[in-house]
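Problem 12. The chain below contains 118 residues. Write out its predicted structure in token notation.
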Amino acid sequence: QVQLVESGGGLVQPGGSLRLSCAASGFTFSSYAMSWVRQAPGKGLEWVSDINSGGGSTYYADSLKGRFTISRDNAKNTLYLQMNSLKPEDTAVYYCAKPNTPGLYEYWGQGTQVTVSS
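Solution.
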């Protein structure tokens, strides 16, 4: 069974950085594209980033490009999201997700809370 477990969230001041991790199990991680999505308080899910199965192609929401970097270590079945220059509007629960089709997520984890505040 598929399991995705996010970690690395927390409270950070504006301008700070966090690195999120997602430990994947229950499927052949290296064969699938993966995504990060987020949900801010009172808002719907927002796509953050995608990465292809091999890690060679990455995609970002325009507003996040240059600040966030998605990566993966297939040998460790782990997905990462490096977040730099964080802004209060980045405050959200961040989810690791296995997409079915673009914008449709077959599986996702419990999420990790990121709070950007002074």
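Discussion. The chain has a mean pLDDT of 96. Students who got a different answer should revisit the alignment rule from Section 12.3.
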